[in-house]
Amino acid sequence: MSVSIKSEREIELMREAGKILFEVHEELGKIIKPGITTLDIDKLGRKLIEGYGCTPSFLGYNGYPASICVSVNDEVVHGIPSKKHILREGDIVSLDAGVIYKGYHSDAARTYGVGKISEDAARLIDVTKQCFFEGIKYAREGCHLHEISEAIGNYAESFGYGVVRDLVGHGVGSALHEDPQVPNFKQETRGMRLKAGMTLAIEPMINAGQYNVRWLDDEWTVVTADGSLSAHYENTVLITDGEPEILSLR
Ligand code: MF3
Ligand code: CO
Description:
The protein has helices spanning 8-30, 38-51, 119-135, 145-157; strands at 55-56, 68-72, 75-77, 92-101, 104-113, 162-163, 169-171, 178-182, 199-202, 205-207, 213-215, 222-224, 230-232, 235-238, 245-246. The chain is an alpha+beta fold. Helix 1 packs antiparallel against helix 2 (38-51) and helix 3 packs antiparallel against helix 4. The longest helix has 23 residues, at 8-30. The structure holds 2-amino-4-trifluoromethylsulfanyl-butyric acid and cobalt (II) ion (CO).
């Protein structure tokens, strides 16, 4: 496993990519309401990303057919936008987006409620976001990678939620997916020692029910095996010798 340490120049480009991606998510968040289609989200996302002079990281990646992964309710990640899929009041929807700016990726995801949602759904969304913040307490030089994993997993499990095991976070930089893998649950080993200049996409995927997932016949969409709701929250994070820098947040 080779984990790259980014140079100051690379970090600057990733900061810019992150700022742009933050703005893209802010704009996409504003259009989430009953009656829009998941394809509407993808179309606006692509337009925004290209409007910033960036390329969507996901479009064409391993054949993925869209710019934004839009995953509704029991869809965990990698939902494929469709004009036939209309959002309804009470749904929850995860938007995962990536941008490439001058050769460098930033990757981030948010989960929103559509109109008024149940208390249980709202709690799942809040806890999933907080999982990320629990994890990044250990995203600093001198900590070990799996301290992040354990903090995320323990927090989610304290609510009785299932932490997805079949998909994990990852290094990010000149490639969308770099080493190391960043699991969201306790590992047998402590993992590598973190160093300033590493950039990680930390992305808890949390199910209201069991952790098991399956793939739909489209070969992309990941859904919960038990049909329970799932939420996703992700940012691109720079490890420093002090507080982590969350590149895709303001
Ligand atoms: N954030 C997702 C990931 O890290 C995005 C990949 S979707 C794909 O896996 F379409 F690009 F594959
Ligand atoms: Co990712």
